[in-house]
Design brief:
Elements lengths: L2 E7 L4 H11 L9 E5 L9 H12 L3 E3 L6 H8 L9 H20 L2 E6 L7 H13 L4 E2 L1 H4 L4 H11 L24 H10 L1 H14 L9 H10 L2 H5 L14
Parallel strand pairs: 1-2, 1-4, 2-3, 4-5
The structure holds iron/sulfur cluster.
Length: 251
């Protein structure tokens, strides 16, 4: 008989953590068939892994990790270029391809699966795209936070205040617990990285120089840093984080 796995894409951000919790508490789903699939990029804030482990233990299901063993810097070096909003090859190679490899493994084991993503009710556009994409290939995808109308802020509150688990430090300054820096971030996002993660900003600026591509059209990160430094008004002008588009599979 073909089995059915329920695979939560578990990035280790607050939203996917709470989506995983909802699934684990859904009495209709056999506990043994729930998979917390984590596809690591090894490039997040330093306490992200600690957070993931604590969440998995709180829920009582071990993480399943399937990754390439590369961080974003390795990925850039292998491709000899840097990712951007238009060509985010890091998402594709470190996350989407790893997820697909895991699904191939499930198939070989004779399993079917349903995918669960932690998009929130405010991310309706992304939900629709994911549904359409999956329908095309005959897959089922579900969104526990949308179904339960739970916002991202509420997920953070519950994890922090009710579970007593400290959120990853990235949330203190950035909207998402993603790679730092994420090449899909806009200038406002890079302004925050420049201020709070200068080492990572510098590393990305060096990759731009090394490979001759820039994250933003017409301006290098080095030039942008000079602007941040010189023009105080950047601080107010650029703090709009709405220009940040997170990884498609990273929530
Ligand atoms: S979070 Fe950003 S840098 Fe990391 S894999 Fe996704 S697009 Fe790439």
């Amino acid at each position: 008989m073909v089995g059915m796995k329920h695979v939560v894409l578990f990035s280790g951000g607050a939203a996917s953590s709470y989506a995983a919790y909802l699934l684990a508490n859904d009495k209709k789903i056999p506990f043994k068939d729930i998979v917390f699939l984590h596809t690591p990029t090894l490039s997040e804030c330093e306490d992200a892994e600690k957070f993931r482990l604590k969440v998995a233990r709180r829920i009582g299901i071990p993480m399943t990790v399937w990754g390439r063993g590369e961080d974003i810097w390795d990925c850039m070096d292998r491709n000899r270029m840097i990712p951007s909003n238009f060509f985010p090859f890091c998402t594709r190679e470190l996350k989407q391809r790893m997820k697909e490899e895991y699904y191939k493994y499930l198939k070989r084991c004779g399993e079917e699966w349903i995918e669960y993503i932690g998009y929130g009710p405010h991310e309706w556009g992304r939900v629709q795209k994911a549904v359409a994409r999956n329908e095309l290939i005959g897959r089922t995808v579900k969104f526990p936070l949308v179904a339960n109308r739970i916002s991202n802020d509420e997920c953070k509150r519950i994890i922090r205040d009710e579970w007593g688990i400290e959120l990853p430090s990235a949330y203190q300054t950035l909207a998402h617990n993603n790679c730092i820096p994420c090449a899909k971030g806009g200038k406002a996002y890079f302004r925050l990285v420049w201020e709070h993660y200068p080492g990572e900003y510098q590393k990305m600026a060096e990759k731009e120089e090394k490979y001759g591509y820039t994250v933003f059209k017409g301006i290098s990160l080095k030039e942008l840093a000079d602007k941040f430094e010189a023009e105080k008004e950047w601080e107010d002008m650029q703090m709009n984080l709405s220009d940040f588009i997170p990884c498609d599979c990273w929530i």
